[in-house]
């Protein structure tokens, strides 16, 4: 119950912080001044999620290597491939955030 209340409180705070952005007029180039702040927030969330995913992936690979050292080659290949996919998602989020902020 406490976890749900914390989530609802954080969602309410996020909505209250976003209210001025919804009421803001557009600038000369059609972009609002909140675009950069939104891009920074989006890439921060993507980077935090990517870092958490990479940590869990590495932990799973290390425990798999500890259980079966003979499969090191296959595990290493799957680990590197998984880390590359996770990192590519963060890079995609960066590109989308920068384009949303009006840099592209």
Structure explained in plain terms:
The protein contains 3 helices and no strands. By secondary structure, it is mostly helical. The chain has one domain: F1F0 ATP synthase subunit C (F1FO ATP Synthase). The model has no long low-confidence stretch (mean pLDDT 85).
CATH topology: F1FO ATP Synthase
The succession of helices and strands, N to C, reads HHH
Look at the structure and name the CATH superfamily: F1F0 ATP synthase subunit C
The rounded Rg comes to 20 Å
> Number of DSSP strands?
0
Residue runs with pLDDT of under 50 for 5 or more positions: none
Overview features:
mainly alpha, F1FO ATP Synthase, 104 residues, elongated, single chain
């Amino acid at each position: 119950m406490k976890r749900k209340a914390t989530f609802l409180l954080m969602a309410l705070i996020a909505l209250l912080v976003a209210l001025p952005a919804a009421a803001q007029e557009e600038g000369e180039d059609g972009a609002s001044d909140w675009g950069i702040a939104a891009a920074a927030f989006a890439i921060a969330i993507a980077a935090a999620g990517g870092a958490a995913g990479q940590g869990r992936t590495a932990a799973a690979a290390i425990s798999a290597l500890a259980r079966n050292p003979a499969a090191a080659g296959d595990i290493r290949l799957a680990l590197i491939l998984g880390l590359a996919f996770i990192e590519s998602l963060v890079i995609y989020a960066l590109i989308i955030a920068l384009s949303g902020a009006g840099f592209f």
